[in-house]
Specification:
three-stranded antiparallel β-sheet; single chain; mainly alpha; 15 strands
């Protein structure tokens, strides 16, 4: 971005510009830090020149040809990536766009995704199918249509059944619409979310959408920019060359929420936002400004964040994802932020510099424009330093190998309720990722008045890596490392020391079904209830081999099947 990081810092130091930034950091107003960074960039002539990447038919054709080569070599995932990139670069209604859809339909047919093949052919025909490939596409469509009919019936039955299995149709909390009335909020010096009554294992407690979320860089060629669904029929944004959507609906919602502005400077964001937290900061700021509806509201809101706002906030202000103030209510009691503040001030400054060049975005008057830029800097820096980013891994079907897996490449989001629940290494709730939504389910019996807890790192029984992996995630999310028996991995060596009572052992043997829990789909509700009863009975020996067995082989298998069916994330092969 700059000539070199060391050269740039030396330049600032020689001219005393770094002292201006350090002095601003002591003032307590984040906007002063960002404005000082912007001044330093302007004075040093270090603002990067980032050109917009325009749609280009030749470039699209090049990516499509690369896809053809990968297809011939049998690298189907790589071919899909190239065809999707070809779509992103193809000008609207161009021959390049039609050929990209046509070629992608060929790989879909080969991989026996016949419905998806038909959709791509229909998209090509809507644009005006080139006459030289029309007969070939008609023949492919007719064959794909015939071969897809049987599969449609079986897939629809399985999908519809699982959608109703965890249907979140409970009575809603009056202040937090995404949550059940089984929870309540207690406000003292801080907020605390507790059980409003005794809660059984397996009870769904919340279904929360993200306020904002973002794809990991490696997931972008296979995922919807808005809902993160990994689809085989992604469609391109018409304005930029870096975004795909799974549907017209997602595209329209995304444009309305933030992408209409983001789209104009996607190349800037790609150049300066090197990690998910930076992307969330930018997207979240754009959405927050849109929700405010006026710069006057943005400016006034920017002066009250973190602990100051929490003291005066209602439950809805704190936890309702549809309330814009929910993302200004993350605790700002984190230590050791000055290093991040210094570095991130330049990211914020460059973003504001390019926002200023979008016609009509900032206020036209000089004074209000200056206040608006300071408000943006204040909000962005607060988001960057304190907004809790929750990682989520998607359940994905690998159709080449007929398997499903959890994508090891996590996406991230802001969740005003789930993201603020108390962190625990042995939580009483488990979070089920449903693309950009999260379902919260009781994992232990919870007594009335008990605080609800989650593990944002991931439940310890689902983390296969070495302890240092869990510790690094903890440090990234919370700035600290836990030394408990779970985080050090000590519980694994002590599994056999946790012995069951006679009652627990009898229940485990009597009710735990040593059979494939997915063989008879109609029996799943009864099987799941039995599994939850066993987990409840074993909750005080959750490190025992029996508990681990029930959790991994039955409880989580059902959860995974539900995720696989409802989310419908599909790739040709496991993502590397």
């Amino acid at each position: 971005m700059f000539l070199t990081y060391t050269f740039f810092n030396n330049y600032l130091r020689e001219r005393g510009l770094d002292n201006q930034i350090y002095a601003a950091m002591k003032n307590g107003d984040y906007s002063d830090v960002v404005m000082a960074a912007l001044h330093a960039l302007e004075e040093s002539d270090s603002l990067p020149t980032i050109e917009k990447d325009n749609k280009c038919e030749k470039r699209s054709d090049k990516y499509r040809e690369e896809g053809n080569i990968a297809f011939k070599l049998g690298n189907v995932n790589r071919a899909l990536e190239f065809y999707n990139t070809a779509l992103m670069y193809a000008p609207k209604n161009s021959r390049a766009m039609k050929l990209a859809y046509s070629n992608r339909s060929a790989i879909l047919f080969k991989m026996e995704h016949f419905r998806e093949c038909v959709i791509d052919i229909e998209n090509c025909c809507k644009l005006g199918c080139p006459t030289d490939i029309e007969s070939k596409l008609i023949k492919r469509k007719n064959e794909a249509t015939q071969r897809s009919e049987t599969k449609i019936i079986s897939d629809l039955f399985f999908s519809c059944y699982f959608k109703d299995f965890f249907k979140f149709d409970v009575k809603s909390n009056t202040s937090i619409p995404c949550a059940s009335s089984d929870i309540e909020v207690i406000k003292g010096d801080d907020f605390k979310v507790v059980a409003a009554k005794d809660i059984k294992v397996g009870t769904p407690l919340a279904l929360e959408d993200s306020f904002e979320s973002c794809n990991n860089e490696k997931n972008i060629p296979f995922s919807c920019h808005y809902c993160h669904k990994m689809s085989l029929n992604l469609i391109p944004c018409e304005g930029c060359c870096l975004v795909l959507f799974c549907s017209e609906e997602c595209k329209e919602i995304c444009l309305k929420e933030y992408h209409s502005i983001e789209c104009q400077i996607m190349e800037v964001i790609q150049s300066i936002a090197f990690d998910p937290k930076a992307k969330l900061m930018i997207k979240g700021t754009l959405k927050f400004v849109q929700m405010c509806g006026s710069w006057k509201k943005v400016i006034s809101s920017s002066h009250c964040t973190g602990a100051d706002r929490i003291r005066i906030s209602s439950e809805q202000d704190m936890y309702d994802v549809n309330n814009k103030f929910s993302v200004l209510n993350f605790n700002d009691n984190r230590l050791f932020v000055h290093g991040s503040m210094y570095l991130d001030s330049f990211v914020c400054a460059i973003f504001i510099y390019y926002l200023e060049r979008i016609s009509g975005y900032l206020p036209s008057s000089f004074d209000e424009g200056k206040l608006a830029k300071k408000a943006l800097g204040r909000i962005m820096m607060y988001f960057r330093l304190y907004a809790s980013h929750t990682p989520f891994a998607l359940r994905v079907s690998d159709t080449k190998n007929k398997k499903s897996f959890f994508n090891p490449i996590s996406n991230y989001g802001w969740y005003p309720l789930i993201g603020k629940l108390k962190e625990s290494c042995s939580p009483n709730l488990i979070v089920i990722n449903l693309n950009k939504k999260m379902l919260l389910i009781a994992l232990k019996p919870i007594k009335k008045g008990s605080e609800l807890t989650v593990s944002h790192i991931g439940h310890y029984l689902l983390c296969d890596g070495e302890p240092h992996v869990r510790n690094s995630i903890s440090f990234d999310l919370f700035g600290n490392v836990c030394n408990c028996i779970i985080c050090t991995g000590g519980w694994k060596s002590q599994k056999k020391q946790f012995s069951l009572t006679e009652k627990q052992l009898n229940l485990y043997k009597e009710r735990f079904l040593h059979e494939d829990v997915l063989i008879n789909i109609m029996r799943i509700p009864n099987v799941f209830k039995k599994i939850c009863n066993v987990l409840a009975c074993l909750s005080d020996v959750s490190f025992s081999e029996e508990y681990v067995h029930v959790f991994n082989n039955s409880f989580f298998r059902l959860i995974s099947a539900y995720q696989e069916s409802v989310c419908a994330n599909v790739v040709f092969d496991r993502i590397r």
